[in-house]
Amino acid sequence: MKKIITNGTIVTATDKFEADILIEDEKIVQIGYDLNSDGAEVIDATGMYVFPGGVDPHTHLDMPFNNTVTDDDFETGTIAAAYGGTTSIVDFCLSTPDKTLKEAVQTWHEKADDKAVIDYGFHLMINDANDAVLEELPQIIDSEGITSLKIFLAYKKEFQADDKTLFKTFVTAKESGALVMVHCENGDVIDYLVTKALAEGHTEPIYHALTRPPQAEGEATGRAIELAAMADSQLYVVHVTCAEAANKIAEARAKGYKVWGETCPQYLLLDQTDLEKPDFEGAKYVWSPPLREKWNQDVLWNALKAGQLQTLGSDQCSFNFNGKKQLGRNDFSKIPNGGPFIEDRFSVLYSEGVKKGRITLNQFVDIVSTQAAKLFGLFPQKGTIAVGSDADIVLFDPNKERVISAETHHMNVDYSALEGMKVVGEPISVLVRGEYVIKDKQFVGKQGSGKYLKRKKFNQGEVEIDTVPTTLS
Ligand SMILES: NC(=O)NCCC(=O)O
Ligand SMILES: [Zn+2]
Ligand SMILES: [Zn+2]
């Protein structure tokens, strides 16, 4: 079915202009004035921004973790994402030593294929780069279009990889055209500090932050950067939280290293004092790396503004407060790590970023959509509004005000870490490949309608990865 979006203001990472968009067969086929709209459904976007759908490069849906499993699966998680203006996610597929990589990816397809309501791809976690894994990896990258790999330097005895695995993964990624994503925290030091704190009788949620100091993140970030450089490979640092890490990334980029960084809404908006909330409420804010002292928020906003950090991931990893979070009632180290942000990622960046003058409107689109599409091999299919791109479109009312609350959100979790926050700007309707998934703030999509995204190899030369928008709004 043909559609025409008319009377709206189109905003991409580089431009802002008024024009109509003609959609046919899932794609944007024309952008301009006086388009032939015969037979097309007319969508009136008067007063709206017309944004490309958000691309969330960091989600954990239906993921076994910390002796339990996340509460949002590919159905609830992607419905919530769509409400929030996100039309593509890239989720982390876990691998385990007892299974082949192919089996691991198959497991993730089984979780997602019949459930997702928006498009999705997978990153593949590497825990031990042994001979079998290294032999299988290039085939998986090619056949599944999984062109990003994930290494955890923390979560000892669960996901943590050693430096040899990290280095070998960088080497293989360079040869195979994949981007290596790294969770940068020194897991051994953290393990020591956690054991010590518990032995001293400290069990409260705040000790989660106190045993994971920013230096542990800075050290691991620096280590990953140097190992990537030694392998002449490419590194994407996930969930950057603090000056110690952000500065390392900025220094590396100044030297011309192939390093990119992501932060998350939680680190821009919340701080370590949230973990001190009474009655175990601090557990709602337990994720890793932990929340930091408040002044780090400015460091992160400035890094986004300056293009030293490029993307915003939700790190969606939800656990109910009156459920799985209670596993750590008497021991902070047993609180499942993670929080719910997939739904609010897009609008809080607009409200706290654009509305408060911290980033420009074009930078908003770049950070929430375009840069992730470029880095993860989806651009220009995703991440922009252009002829030939998928018609993934958000009609956004920039003046609508709302208050974030678990009462009204769509994530399958009983609390919001942003409860009570006032937000200006709201996605009203959201289209994925030309079909409404959200229409006038109601979900109208279909379970399983999301398509699996086979992604292009890292930086094939077609896409200029480091584009910093120049158009100011
Ligand atoms: N961030 C977090 O605490 N949970 C998800 C796993 C990870 O990204 O480290
Ligand atoms: Zn992580
Ligand atoms: Zn994560």
UniProtKB/TrEMBL annotation:
Identify the keywords attached in UniProt to this record, alphabetized. Answer: Hydrolase, Metal-binding
Concerning CDD domains, the annotation shows:
D-HYD
Family in the record: Belongs to the metallo-dependent hydrolases superfamily. Hydantoinase/dihydropyrimidinase family.
Any one Gene Ontology MF annotation carried by this entry is:
metal ion binding
Q: List the GO cellular component terms.
A: cytosol
Q: Which PANTHER family match?
A: COLLAPSIN RESPONSE MEDIATOR PROTEIN (PTHR11647:SF1), HYDRANTOINASE/DIHYDROPYRIMIDINASE FAMILY MEMBER (PTHR11647)
Q: How is it modified after translation?
A: Carbamylation allows a single lysine to coordinate two divalent metal cations.
EC number annotated for this UniProt entry: 3.5.2.2
| Required cofactor names | Zn(2+)
The name this protein goes by in its record: Dihydropyrimidinase
Q: Which InterPro entries match?
A: Amidohydro-rel, Hydantoinase/dihydroPyrase, Metal-dep_hydrolase_composite, Metal_Hydrolase, Metallo-dep_Hydrolases_sf
Keyword S-adenosyl-L-methionine listed: no
Gene encoding this polypeptide?
hydA
Q: Which residues does the UniProt record annotate as the domain Amidohydrolase-related? A: 49-436
Q: Which Pfam families match?
A: Amidohydro_1 (PF01979)
Keyword NAD among UniProt keywords:
no
| Ranges in a coiled coil | none
Q: Which residues carry this modification: N6-carboxylysine?
A: 150
